[in-house]
Design a protein that fits this description.
The protein starts with a helix and ends with a helix. The chain has one domain. The radius of gyration is 15 Å and the shape is globular. It has 4 helices and no strands. It is mainly α.
Length: 115
């Protein structure tokens, strides 16, 4: 597992910026609807707490196979949730497409470098 996991976070972050500039341009919008923003914050905090709890208390972090599946599942759930919210609350923009493309880039990275 080693160095590939921190690079995954770096790849996803950089891909989010680059793909966002390509697909959306400078007209980037965020979920500003009060209800949507609250759902986004609560959902991502719940996913984060569950993910950290799984790593600390449930999963055997020394087992590479378990961690590979964890990162695959965690990335899919979080970016899938993000793209769903952007599709639901920002339908007129193409922000959800950015999240979906970054999800695909992250999954390809996991399948090539971690598996």
């Amino acid at each position: 597992m080693g160095i590939t996991t921190p690079i995954l976070a770096l790849v996803v972050s950089i891909a989010y910026i680059i793909v966002g500039k390509i697909i959306v341009g400078n007209k980037k919008r965020k979920i500003s609807d009060k209800f949507g923003k609250n759902i986004q914050i609560v959902g991502l905090v719940i996913f984060g707490v569950i993910g950290i709890s799984c790593i600390l208390f449930v999963l055997d972090i020394s087992n590479n196979d378990v961690m590979k599946w964890f990162w695959l599942f965690f990335l899919t759930i979080t970016l899938g949730f993000q793209s769903f919210l952007e599709w639901k609350f920002l339908r007129e923009t193409r922000e959800y497409m950015v999240s979906l493309v970054v999800l695909m880039i992250g999954l390809i990275y996991i399948l090539i470098f971690i598996f």
